[in-house]
Amino acid sequence: MDELTDIQVRNPRHSVQNDPTFAHSPQMTKNIITLAAALFAFAQSVNGHGYVQEVKLGSVSYAGYNPYVDPYLSPSVPRIIRMIPGNGPVEDLSLIDVQCNGWSAGGVVGSAPSKVYGTVAAGTQAHLNWTTWPDSHKGPIVTYLARAPSDITAWSPGTSAVWFKVAESGKDSSGRWAATDLLTASSGVYTFTIPPKLKAGQYIIRNELIALHSGSGTALPTSFVSFPGAYTGTTPGIVYDVYTNTGPYPIPGPAVWTGGN
C-alpha cells in the first residue's frame, strides 16, 4: 500500500477565494470543504513511491508538501497538504497512518491537521499532480471525503467512521491500471469532481488524495467507513495479484456515494 495525502479547501457559499494562510491539513471556516487524499498502489514489495506535488482547485493552484525540502525551511511554509514523513509506503492497515499518512514505526503517528485550505464550489473538478509513480506499482485510485463537525484546521477524524467514497478507478477493460497506466497517460494528474449536490460544509478529501467545499447542495450520505478499519490484510482488493490474476479487479471499500450527483 502506498502514499496518502491530505489537502483542504475552503469555500464561502457564493464565492471562490484564495486564503494566503495555507497549511497542511483540514481547514475550517464557514461553508468549507476539506479533502484528505490518499492514493496507493498494490504490490508485494514497494521500493519507490510518490506524493502530490501540486493541487489545483478550480483555477487556483497550491504547492504540495515536499518531504525532502519543507522540513528544512525556516520559517516553515504552510501547505494545503498535510505534512508527510517521506514517500515510503503504509503497509500495516491497522495503523492510523493509513488514513492520511504517517510513520508510526519511526515515531510519527498519523498526521496533524493543516492550517491551509482552499475554496471551491460543489461540482468543480479537483486536480492532484503526483510525482512520478513507479510502473510496477499497479493498483486503483480511490477518493473519500469526511465532513468535519467543527474547525477543519484543528479537527482529526481519529478512528471514527466518517468517510464516504466519491470516486474510484481500478482496472479498465483493456487491462490498464489507474495508479500507473492512466495516471501516466494524464502526466501524473489525477482528476475527480466534487459531488454537485454535496451539502455545504468543511470536508477532508482522502485520495487514496485533498479538501474542498460545496455550494448550495443538501445531500449527505448516511453510511460511512473508518481509517483504519475500512480495509484489512485479507480484503480482496488489497491482496489481489496484479501479475497472475487476469480477472476483474475488486476495488476495496464501499460503493461510490452517488447521492450527491
Descriptive overview:
The chain is mainly beta and 261 residues long. Helix content is 6%, strand content 21%. It contains three helices and nine strands, in the order ββββαβββαββα. The chain has a five-stranded antiparallel sheet with strand order 2-1-9-6-7. The protein has a four-stranded antiparallel sheet with strand order 4-3-5-8, with no helix packed on it. The chain is globular. About 17% of the residues have low confidence.
How do the SSEs run, as a string of H and E? Answer: EEEEHEEEHEEH
- Assembly classification: single chain
Cα(first) to Cα(last) distance is 29 Å
Bin the helical content. under 10%
Summarize the main sheet.
5 strands, antiparallel
Which structural class matches the secondary elements?
Answer: mainly beta
Total number of helical segments?
3
Our estimate of the beta-strand percent is: 15-25%
Radius of gyration from the CA trace? 17 Å
What order do the strands of the largest sheet run in, or round the barrel if closed?
A: 2-1-9-6-7
Rounded mean pLDDT score: 75
Using the alpha-carbon principal axes, give the shape: globular
Q: Which spans of ≥5 residues are poorly predicted at pLDDT below 50?
A: 9-48, 209-213
Number of strands: 9
